[in-house]
Amino acid sequence: MGGMESFMYRRDNELIDVAEAFARKRDGIDDTTKVFLIKLRQLIFTPLENRGFNNININYNQNFLHEFIKKYQSILNNEIDRYHKLKADDIIQKVVTLFWFRFKVQEPIAKYTWFNYRDKIDPSRMEGIWDDDDTDNIVVDIFHFPLIADKSTNQIYTPLNSFINIKDIIIQFTSY
Question: Which top-level group of life is the source organism from (predicted)?
């Protein structure tokens, strides 16, 4: 990834690291410093989420597709054309800004977890329609989107959206 987004992302993370080190290495206890770290991260990544990888304006009257989007648009369009007609540039922008910027706006910072095809379900983290005595035969079959949560508090921002396979019968479930 190149361009302003990459530069800002690196510098923003450096500034956040310095601010966190400052809070750790300077004596004192106050709520302002704790809030500062959260607000700094949110203020930095919210504009990146809102405008990151958008079209590039030249002289406020010409719009050009962002180079990152342009690079991957044709690759994704070729793959999508095999299945359905969608706008690849919109998909790339929304996915990249979600995974790179939006998670850092959350407090606490969200993490995502992908489950692999044929992973056994985990009844402590997933819910669905199944008999608790028969969970050994249930596996993840297809999923649309990862589980997004704060692992330290188990707060779920977006549940896993998936299908499970029970002896070749597929049903939809979500995790919590």
Answer: Eukaryota
